[in-house]
Amino acid sequence: METKAHRDPGAHHSAGPNPARARRVGLLCLGLILLSAGCLVGPDFKPPQEAVPAKFSAQPAAQAEQALRDQDLAQWWTIFNDPVLVSLEKRALKANLDLQVAQARLRQARASRGIAAGGLGPELDVSGSYQRTRYSSSSTKSSSSLAGTVGDVYQTGFDASWEVDIFGGLRRNLEAANADVRASEEARRQVMVSLTAEVARNYLELRTLQQRIIIARTNLAAQRHTARLTRQRQEVGFVSGLDTANAEAQASTTAARIPPLEAAARQTIHNLGVLLGQEPAALLPQLTPSEPIPASPPTVPTGLPSDLLTRRPDIRQAEAKLHAATARVGVATADLFPRFLLTGAAGYQSSSFSTWFDGAGNFWSIGPSISWPIFASGKIRANIELKDAQAEEALLVYRQTVLNSLREVEDALVASTQEQSHRRELTAAVAANQKALKLSTLLYTEGQVEFLNVLQAQGALYVTEDALVSSNGAVGTNLVSLYKALGGGWQAEPKTGKPTVPLASSN
Predict the structure, then answer these.
(1) 376 CB contacts (<8 Å, ≥6 apart)?
(2) How does pLDDT run across 258-267, given as a tens digit for each residue?
(3) DSSP code of 282?
(4) In 3-state terms, what secondary structure has residue 131?
(5) Distance (Å, whole) CA 81 – CA 234
(6) Which residue from 470, 427, 481 is spatially nearest to 261, judged by alpha carbons?
(7) How confident is the model at residue 469 (pLDDT cuts 50, 70, 90)?
(8) CA 367, CA 162: separation in Å to the nearest integer?
(9) From residue 124, how far is each of 100, 109, 307, 344, 503 by CA, in Å?
(10) How distant, in Å, are the alpha carbons of 133, 209, 417 from that of 414?
(11) Residue 365, SS3?
């Protein structure tokens, strides 16, 4: 910016500009503006084209072709038909602190974009001042008429400057800032994806642990009953003390498995409390009572692998970061070229407030300036190489993110398919062990088999029942992993594309 030169309060200067000179300055300004509209150094961003398979290897073609609606994906947890889970998801999306942190970072990115956008426009500073001065009688710089006198100086005016973005450095900077905003938006959406999956996973694990505790207590009651009967038979001499000791040992072993399960269940409730932005024990009254594991559908549509490129927030975030890195190459490249500024100043100055705005006291100046770093010891080109390398890194990160997304979906599909087969086999195993326990108990009472057969049947039944309950929970958690891998848990508004919290009905 230009600063206003000091004016002698007793001097008078012409206020009228030279018309021919003013026209030349205007034409020069217009030419700089036209030049700034058409030149943009640095590479233009083009979205990367990644090759992805036509279908997921673990997904049948018929299911892959099923439509996966955005609304269903945004509210995927409703497929479990569990009002408590729906309520927990809704409260987490409203109060989770990690999500609030992501929102604060988004606001920061938007504010930074505003700063970058402000660099494209002119700057204007307005100032005003008053001074009371005594002029020296011996100074050669003071006129004889003012020597030894005291006078007032009133002054007001403005300074203006505008960097004409001829080579596009400022516009590239704004482009990078816009990409940073998109990256922050996608980071917030990714937090939503992770949050909704974590709430559902912890809830399913809680219900699984509660059912495992019920199975353990049921088996413990049966084993203690068997131990009492065995002791009674020992007292009348029908069995040895070895059978009684084995029965009591089995009951104690089962009882020892319950406290760790109860501790894990309580810790899971604590996890859910923190996910909902509350103190760990806040949900104990609501979630301590045992409830069944929510039922899971056997299959869900997954769409095509190419859908992940536009659906998963982490891929969209990686693309936005690549865009920002590419734009910053242009920002660095623009430093190789000269910078053009238009500066101006205007104002009024007078020794008397009553004559402040008369024609004799005004002053003004306007004109362009140029700066060009002719020699910078290679710093500018080194900075361009740095930005190029950062853009290359961003591209590699994008490609790795795509590969990881494909792997996560494939892993989730394989785990879901195999766990359902595992559950079918366990269901058959539980039925067979129940039958074996009945037969061994009957044969033992008839004296045809030893008591060890009964204990083995009881132990096998408990193991398979516990495994079946765990498998029921794993089917649900694998489904949660699949929806997370598909990028479910967020939804964009149809027109603006702004992230919205998925709608969820309350209890």
Answers:
(1) none
(2) 999 999 999 9
(3) G
(4) strand
(5) 52
(6) 470
(7) very high
(8) 11
(9) 37, 25, 49, 9, 46
(10) 88, 24, 5
(11) strand
> How many residues in the chain?
507
In the DSSP assignment, the letter for residue 390 is H
H-assigned helices in 65-168: 70-74, 83-95, 97-118
Phi and psi torsions of 319, nearest 5°: -65, -40
Structure tokens at 227: 């131990």
Which pair of tokens denotes residue 406? 């494909």
Which pLDDT score is estimated for 1? 34
Q: Nearest Cα to 37, choosing from 170, 173, 176, 161?
A: 170
Which pair of structure tokens corresponds to residue 474? Answer: 């794993």
Q: Distance (Å, rounded) from C-alpha 412 to C-alpha 479? A: 7
- Do 146 and 342 touch, CB atoms closer than 8 A? no
Positive or negative torsion for Cα 43, 45, 51, 52: positive
Classify domain 1-38+123-164+338-371 at the CATH superfamily level.
Answer: Outer membrane efflux proteins (OEP) (2.20.200.10)
Summarised one tens digit per residue, pLDDT across range 275-288 is 999 999 999 999 99
Rounded to a whole number of angstroms, the distance between the first and last alpha carbons of the chain is 63
Residue 167 DSSP code: S
Question: Which residue stretches of 298-378 are H helix?
Answer: 308-311, 313-334
